[in-house]
Amino acid sequence: MLTSGSTVSKTTDKNSYQDISLPVNVRVADLISKMTLAEKIEQLSGIGFDTRANTRLGIPAVSMADGPAGVRKGNATAFPAPVSMAASWDPELLERIGKVIGQEAESKGITYMLGPAINIHRHPLGGRNFESYGEDPFLAGELAAAYIQGLQSNKVLAAAKHFAVNNQEWNRSTIDVQVSERALREIYFPAFKAAVQKGKSQTVMTAYNIVNGTYSSENNFLLNQVLKDEWGFEGYVVSDWAAVKSTVATANAGLDLEMPFGEYYGDKLLNAVKNGQVSEEVINEKIRRIFSARMTAGIFDSSLHKDPSVIDKQSHKDLAREVSEQSIVLLKNDKNILPLNKKTIKKIALIGPNAIEAVTGAGGSSMVVPTYSVSPFEGIQQLVGDDIELIVAAGTAIADDILPISSQYLSHTIDGKTGAKTEQGLLGEYFTSTDLSGEPVMTRTDQHISFFWSYSAPHSALHAPDDNNHFSIQWSGQIHPPKSGDYTFTLMHPNGARLYIDNKLIIDKKAHQGKQKVHDGVISLNAEQSYDIKIEYFQYSWESGVKLGWTIPGQNLMDEAIAAAKEADITIIFAGLSNRHEGEGNDRETLDLPNQDKLIKTISAVNPNTIVVLETGTSVSMNTWHNKVSAIVQAWYPGQEGGNAIAKVLFGEVNPSGKLPFSFIQQESHSPAFIGYKTPDLKARYDEGIFVGYRYLDKNNIDLFYPFGHGLSYTDFSYANFSVQKVTNQSYKVSVEIKNTGTVVGKEVVQLYVHDHKSELPRPINELKAFNKVTLAPNESKVVEWTLNKEAFSYFHAQRKKWIVEPGTFSIVVGSSSRDLRLTNKITIN
Predict the structure, then answer these.
(1) Of 88, 115, 105, 110, which Cα lies nearest the Cα of 202?
(2) pLDDT digits (tens, 9 = 90+) for 139-162
(3) Which DSSP symbol is given to 225?
(4) Which of 372, 323, 330 minimizes the C-alpha distance to 69?
(5) CB-based burial of residue 743 (10 Å sphere; 0-12 exposed, 13-18 middle, 19+ buried)?
(6) Strand ranges in 212-291 using DSSP code E only, listed in sequence order
(7) Residue range 737-758: average pLDDT?
(8) Is-contact 599 351, C-beta < 8 A?
(9) Under 8 Å between Cβ of 686 and 179
(10) What are phi and psi of 701, to 5 degrees?
């Protein structure tokens, strides 16, 4: 067995590796020389979300957390989903996000954040598409590099993930991606290359899937040949959780750190070295990379000061709202129905399952638990005050989900210094035990019981280091039924729960289930009476969450929504997906909105002034209602401040400036990714090659709902004075003048595409090669400038195995989206 370094006497004399004045390479070499083989191998695997400390040599442990949208440990600022960040098309904003997430990580003792996720959106149903930056490699690379720079400006390491071609969740651990080298080089590699070369990411995480017959974690072509040798990556490679499948092949292929435990990088690796299957030089190289990264980042030499107050900084909350504001995409705005005018509107109907719930993010390891969240209803109510009457009607529940009981029917009594008082909502008591014993670590008022913590927990004291969480919660108070009759109560949860009404056990499902299930119980209630209510929740392991709903006697949700829409001047439908449809481990089943298309179609027929706000991480089908609604707003998963951001955009306090980071297709046949999807032989054949996203749609002249780069504004922009000047034979200076011709301040994302008129191998019609987001006051003009080098005109020649620029004519095109191209200039490269 491996001997832990912590059992050996601790070093007291200062060694060269402890001298921070020396170069990192000198310090690392000295450290390696003092380590036994067993101690070296001990550093190549983790313990849950930590690496191992070595007290003899003074090697500190490194604590990790998931984090593409915030720190997934205890409470933290919940930023909008990464796909929402991508819709900002603003690298400077991504850098600021990374910096704040790094600060919050440091404040929790976290020195290694497992993000960003930068896989390309190939499949429209991809379960983790919402975690990454869209369908274009250039956009994804620019944003990833900026985020990493911000994150690593703290004493925190970034992990660019998941390398490579992790583009679907279905059978992700066994699927064999069959993809050409050209597609890898042009579509799936560039964002990772930018992450390590421009962003200087200190680590890269491998994917679960197989790539051309070899698992990513033991793929010599990916890890040694491309990442380390060609790109000059000096950091280290970490596995995704339990993604390692072998010892010798993995060690020799370039994987440096196995997580979460040393199943293969423990005794098996020690024996492989002793047997000569893996050289000690290979082990030393892994140690060199790991400790070089940690020393460079400054996390080897200093302890972190934990400061829980950091996440409560107003600047962090403001940034979360700003990100959502800058990322919201105005897809459609017939007759300029938006922005809404508070002075002329008297009544608004807020309809849909997401109207009163704050859908901060989707499911899986990216879920962040904030200290608060703002629903669309709360955001709009705060903005309009008493000026506009708001009518709320859900209309329907999202498929496979339930509607929570509204806080207006729940209350609890608090005994204070001035006597007892009643508050809306239930009293929640949170315990570290699994049986409600002991003193609660947190007591608070919860407005309704609708929580999904995924692998996180509602409080840091309840979150286990390896996500195997064990805790319990009790909610208590009174419930006030609006009608008399039989009520069906519903509890949805993955673990154990009980429901009591007036001390009568209504639902009893305390046993561990392992996944989200719905349980019902029926009881007769009187509208003239209040009842004691108690919910007990028991968390036994892993994924956590609980939701309480009911069915009111005689209630028809659709009829209520229709009545509200008829009565209102404006109807806003909040539709979308949830953590049950988008998240780690599963892809979506269909492009359709789950159980909401009928609602939108019905309500838009009743009220022509209908606006749809979508909260999703991917595109959805709009075929049955697209032409019937007046406006469509893509709000993504907008984070903890989403309700405020949505309200500000709807009422014009913020001018929308987001642009789509991927195409909104009309049907499955418009994406080649559906061909051969879920094949019995577990092979995903990327036969479309480089033609992914808008590249495929443009090549095949396919109509779509909204193109890559699309996004409307409350103002207009003109493009003029487009200039292309030759610097060298393969380098050009490009400039264009943008003017705000409208009446309000706005931001425009100016996009530059390159078109090769003739090439030996097929090339896309247009490819994004530059972009810039500019802010303009009414009548203000700015000149946007770029320098294009040979990379903007080159492609990877599969037969020659290299990047080439072919002589000939190229068009340089600028515009507002991939299909709204305003100006063109032609050049000839000799």
Answers:
(1) 115
(2) 999 999 999 999 999 999 999 999
(3) I
(4) 323
(5) exposed
(6) 214-215, 236-238
(7) 98
(8) yes
(9) yes
(10) 50, 50
8 Å CB contact between 43 and 336 = no
Which residue's structure tokens are 């179609």?
A: 601
- Cα 661 from Cα 73, distance rounded (Å): 28
Per DSSP, 209 falls in state S
CATH domain 715-829 topology: Immunoglobulin-like (2.60.40)
Q: What is the pLDDT of residue 752?
A: 98
Question: What confidence tier does 13 reach under pLDDT thresholds 50, 70, 90?
Answer: low
| pLDDT surpasses 60 at 418 | no
Q: What is the mean pLDDT of residues 517-536?
A: 94
Q: Are 216 and 207 in contact (CB under 8 A)?
A: yes
pLDDT tens for each residue of 776-829? 999 999 999 999 999 999 999 999 999 999 999 999 999 999 999 999 999 999
125-139 confidence digits (pLDDT tens): 999 999 999 999 999
750 pLDDT higher than 70 = yes
In order of 156, 164, 742, the CA distances from 133 in angstroms are 21, 15, 30
Cβ neighbours of residue 532 under 8 Å, at least 6 residues apart?
Answer: 476, 477, 478, 479, 500, 501, 502, 503
Catalytic residue (choose from 136, 176, 240, 467): 240
CA distances, 243 to each of 162, 208, 286, 411 (Å) = 11, 5, 18, 47
Residues 6+ apart with CB under 8 A from 276: none
Q: What CATH code would you report for 407-447+470-541?
A: 2.60.120.380
For residues 772 and 736, give the distance between their C-alpha atoms in angstroms, rounded to a whole number: 11
Q: Is 240 a catalytic residue?
A: yes
Here the tokens at position 64 are 């990790």
The answer to whether 215 and 174 have CB atoms below 8 angstroms apart is: no
For 727-736, the pLDDT digits (tens) are 988 899 999 9
550-584 pLDDT, tens digit each: 999 999 999 999 999 999 999 999 999 988 899 99
CA distances from 574 to 54, 352, 358 (A): 53, 5, 11
Q: Are 172 and 153 in contact (CB under 8 A)?
A: no
Amino acid at 469: N
Annotated domain spans of the chain: 23-297, 407-447+470-541, 715-829
User: Cβ–Cβ contacts within 10 Å for residue 250, how many?
Assistant: 26
Q: Identify the CATH number of the domain defined by range 23-297.
A: 3.20.20.300
Residue 160, classed as helix, strand or coil, is strand
Q: Can you list the positions of beta strands (E) in 23-131?
A: 46-47, 50-51, 64-66, 112-114
Within 10 angstroms of residue 225's Cβ, the number of other Cβ atoms is 14
Kind of pairing between the strands at 485-493 and 517-525 = antiparallel
Torsion over CA: 461, 463, 468, 472 (sign): positive
Helix (H, G, I), strand (E, B) or coil at 143: helix
pLDDT in tens, 241-270: 999 999 999 999 999 999 999 999 999 999
3-state secondary structure (DSSP) of residue 267: helix
Distance CA 544, CA 537 (A): 10
State the average pLDDT over residues 230-242. Answer: 98
Q: What's the CA gap between 149 and 596, in Å, rounded?
A: 40
**C-alpha–C-alpha distance, residues 167 and 163, integer Å:** 10
The pLDDT of residue 12 is 45
The rounded percent of the chain whose pLDDT value lies above 70 is 97
**pLDDT computed for residue 63 by the predictor:** 95
DSSP result, 465-478: TTS---EEEEEEEE
**Residue 338's pLDDT band (cuts 50, 70, 90):** very high
Tokens 């504004």 correspond to 713
Mean pLDDT of the residues in the chain: 94
In sequence order, what DSSP letters do the residues of 364-425 get, joined into one string?
Answer: STT--B-S----HHHHHHHHHTTSSEEEEE--SPPTT--PPPPGGGEEEEEEETTEEEEEES
Q: 655 near 713, Cβ under 8 Å?
A: yes
